[in-house]
UniProtKB/TrEMBL annotation:
Gene3D superfamilies hit by this protein: Cytochrome c1, transmembrane anchor, C-terminal, NAD(P)-binding Rossmann-like Domain
Keyword entries, A-Z: NAD, Oxidoreductase
Catalytic residues (UniProt): 258 (nucleophile)
Binding site for NAD(+): 30, 35, 84, 119, 148, 261, 325
Family the entry assigns: Belongs to the UDP-glucose/GDP-mannose dehydrogenase family.
Principal EC category: oxidoreductase
Organism: Methanococcus maripaludis
Location of the UDP-glucose/GDP-mannose dehydrogenase C-terminal domain: 311-424
Protein name: UDP-glucose 6-dehydrogenase
Family annotation (PANTHER family): UDP-GLUCOSE 6-DEHYDROGENASE TUAD (PTHR43750)
Pathway where it operates: Nucleotide-sugar biosynthesis; UDP-alpha-D-glucuronate biosynthesis; UDP-alpha-D-glucuronate from UDP-alpha-D-glucose: step 1/1
Key word Oxidoreductase present: yes
Molecular function GO labels: NAD binding; UDP-glucose 6-dehydrogenase activity
E.C. code: 1.1.1.22
Length: 440
């Protein structure tokens, strides 16, 4: 069976490399020539644990990349993994989906199965089916639930496979079960349903997780005022199986390419259908305020931050990724820069540091147009001579740093931990003044 994967971003690249590792003949297609060139040379354009190694193993064997949609002619199955960004109002912009389908249409000469992995609003798969009336093609909805940083591991061991079919489609189930045979053998649950249910599962999952985070974040503000300890609250709540431990870590809000965009899109989908969303709207607004609230805490402490220097530890939206999209660290940097602060930024992931340099066109020796943002390649240089250390990523590696040395290097011994990741007692023992999110 020949497979094409359209789009080589975080979703498409994992899908292409992952399916090649199952032994399929895979062609990855992307309009970005330089990316295609890199991939054919075995170089991964994005950072994801284990991905480059697997890419190198399969590229040139049963995996290749091209910019030509013509190469899809002899593919039986095509996975559509292009981006679905949000427009100015927060709606999902489907322009990349539609333009990919237009390009594909030119090469539909035999029967094909088009699998939509991109996150699309409820109703999109049916709309595509209608647009392709007259072609010998089946559309299947197959949302992905991968977390960046562990995406390859999760691709190989998913928690569930969701497939949405058209009611009259009798061939796709067998094809998809063949592709995902490994998962069937591992008894991973398959949810076979209609398009709309499949599409909603994706939004419901992301919005629910985002809501858990906003829930605990809202409580953290009350904890801050009342001497309650949000970490102990979350831990105790999590011991109740019905609640569960995960996604109850209070902090400066969720970021990334999915939660903020999908929550906003879901709100728009409610509105479009004439239903008033209340919980999801609150999830979004709590998240948007959380970073401002934390910034307010920092400002209150210093009074005036103009001219103060801060170390920001964490540039990407979470650990083990180079992805800066909707990163709370970057949002905080922007707020601090606007009030005249000087920022020294650091991230454990080199590619995240490079991406931050690209955003601000800055590096350690040359700030951009008088901007006060510097990216450093070493954590200890980053914390030297600063007026405060601000943690913006929940990376446990931070607990293994030499905090006694950091204490000596920093001018002012103050930590604002926006992710409650540091062991408070430990850093306080070294003499730091420590502020977390909703801690006693
Ligand atoms: C998410 C979903 O988890 C995944 O299933 C979906 O396919 C894509 O969106 P991802 O964006 O990679 O994955 O990151 P995730 O690990 O879910 O974290 C999202 C954000 O929430 C991060 O900014 C993280 O820092 C934050 N977060 C997470 C919290 O603030 N508290 C928590 O308890 C958990």
């Amino acid at each position: 069976m020949k497979i094409s994967v359209i789009g080589t971003g975080y979703v498409g690249l994992i899908q292409a490399v992952g399916l090649a590792s199952f032994g399929f003949d895979v062609t990855g297609i992307d309009i970005d020539e330089s990316k295609v060139k890199m991939l054919n040379n075995g170089v991964c354009p994005l950072y994801e644990d284990g991905l480059e190694k697997l890419l190198k193993k399969h590229v040139g064997n049963n995996l290749k990349f091209t910019t030509s949609y013509e190469e899809t002619i002899d593919s039986d199955v095509i996975f559509l993994c292009v981006g679905t960004p949000q427009d100015k109002e927060g709606n999902t912009d489907l322009k990349y989906i539609f333009s990919a389908v237009e390009m594909l249409k030119k090469h539909f000469q035999s029967q094909k199965w088009l699998v939509i992995k991109s996150t699309v609003p409820i109703g999109t798969n049916r709309l595509l089916k209608e647009r392709l009336t007259g072609y010998d093609i089946e559309i299947i909805s197959n949302p992905e639930f991968l977390k960046e940083g562990v995406a390859l591991k999760e691709f190989l061991n998913p928690e569930r496979i969701v497939l949405g079919f058209d009611e009259n489609d009798s061939s796709s189930k067998e094809i998809l079960e063949k592709i995902y045979k490994n998962f069937k053998e591992k008894n991973i649950p398959f949810i076979l349903t209609n398009y709309e249910t499949s599409e909603m599962i994706k939004y419901a999952s992301n919005a629910f997780l985002a809501t858990k985070i906003s829930f605990i974040n809202e409580l953290s503000k009350l904890a801050d005022k009342t001497n309650a300890d949000i970490k102990t609250v979350a831990y105790s709540m999590g011991l109740d199986d019905r609640i569960g431990k995960k996604f109850l870590n209070a902090g400066i809000g969720y970021g990334g390419s999915c939660f903020p965009k999908d929550v906003k899109s879901l709100i728009k989908q409610f509105e479009y259908n004439g239903v008033v969303p209340k919980i999801i709207t609150a999830t979004n607004s709590v998240n948007e305020n959380q970073i401002k609230w934390f910034f307010g805490k920092i400002k209150n402490y210093y009074g005036n931050i103009n001219g103060k220097t801060f170390a920001i530890l964490g540039l990407a939206f979470k650990p083990d990724t180079d992805d800066l999209r909707e990163s709370a660290g970057i949002k905080l940097i922007d707020l601090l820069l606007c009030e005249g602060a000087i920022i020294k930024g650091y991230d454990y992931i080199k590619q995240a540091r490079e991406n931050a340099c690209n955003i601000y066109k800055s590096n350690a020796s040359k700030p951009f147009h008088g901007s006060n943002f510097y990216v450093l390649d070493n954590l200890y240089d980053t914390v030297s001579n600063v007026d405060g250390i601000i943690i913006t990523v929940e990376d446990n590696k931070l607990n293994y740093e030499d905090w006694s040395n950091i204490f000596n290097l920093a001018s002012e011994k103050i930590i604002f931990d926006g992710k409650n990741i540091l062991h408070k007692e430990k850093v306080e023992k070294f003499g730091f003044e420590y502020f977390g999110v909703g801690l006693k």
